[in-house]
Write a structure and sequence with these properties.
With 261 residues, this protein is α+β, with helices and mostly antiparallel strands. It has two domains: 105 residues, Alpha-Beta Plaits; 117 residues, Alpha-Beta Plaits, CATH 3.30.70. Helix content is 39%, strand content 25%. The N terminus is likely disordered.
């Protein structure tokens, strides 16, 4: 079997295994999205301008031609190792996500628009490093939900790390057991919930919330923590007998001008 076919098959198998359902049980109406999340580690100045231009004029249009979107493009406002930009790429084709750069390289329009960024030299690099994660949407939240308003907004990207695969699966189950609804009622505006199939610090999950501003973020989390439904869920012996999450990373993002989310 060719390496590319093997990778695609392996990723598909991982997605099904993590979700805890066999292929025979798959429900087409509940098809979940896959997300490629990229972090561009940059230096202030020319790299910031070049990367945003690359997103706006080359990468996001090319992803649209591939049927992917809406694309999220964000600036890291609060978090480790700034400056950095995040790119969120949703799609339903796992193979397309796994082979994204290979397919982009065959897009002549993209290659022309991306030339300066794509072919940057060591003397004048376009970025420091790019990190990426391949995510699968949770069964209970199968598709991205952009904010209703494109006005003033910020995003909170959270990563939950678990001590074992079993505890990780248990935390995913907890989300699917009513946690989504608590976020919505608290005004935390969920955008996505996803499982990490490939990436760093596994096993882990990532989710994103949106708010009007930091004050709304604080108010939403206060409402979440004090909600009777959360107190009941978090005290359930199935989820509370052990630490099913041992580390939480929290980042605050704001949308770039080219963001579609």
């Amino acid at each position: 079997m060719e390496r590319r076919q093997f990778l695609t098959a392996s990723l598909a198998a991982s997605a099904i295994a993590v979700a805890g359902e066999g292929a025979a049980q798959a429900q087409p109406a509940r098809t979940r999205e896959y997300y490629q999340l990229r972090r561009y580690n940059l230096k202030s100045g020319a790299q910031l301008r070049a990367t945003e231009k690359y997103f706006a004029e080359a990468l996001i249009p090319a992803l649209g031609r591939m049927g992917m979107g809406p694309i999220g493009a964000f600036r890291l406002d609060f978090g480790q190792e700034t400056p950095a930009y995040y790119l969120l790429i949703p799609g339903t084709d796992l193979a397309a996500q796994a082979e994204l750069d290979l397919r982009l390289a065959k897009d002549e329009e993209f290659m022309k628009a991306a030339d300066l960024f794509w072919n940057a030299t060591a003397a004048a690099p376009a970025f420091q490093r790019v990190e990426s994660w391949l995510q699968a949407a949770f069964e209970g939240w199968p598709k991205i939900t952009p904010p209703a308003s494109k006005g003033k907004r910020i995003f909170q990207l959270r990563t939950y790390e678990s001590p074992s695969n079993g505890e990780h699966v248990r935390k995913v189950e907890m989300f699917n057991s009513g946690e989504f609804e608590i976020f919505v009622k608290a005004g935390c505006n969920p955008v996505l919930f996803s499982d990490t199939l490939l990436g760093s610090r596994m096993p882990c999950l990532k989710y994103m919330l949106s708010f009007e501003d930091l004050a709304a973020l604080d108010a939403g989390w206060n409402a979440f923590r004090t909600a009777p439904a959360w107190k009941k869920l978090s005290s359930d012996p199935r989820f509370s007998f052990d630490n099913i999450v041992t580390n939480i990373s929290n980042e605050i993002l704001s949308p770039l001008g080219c963001s579609q989310i």
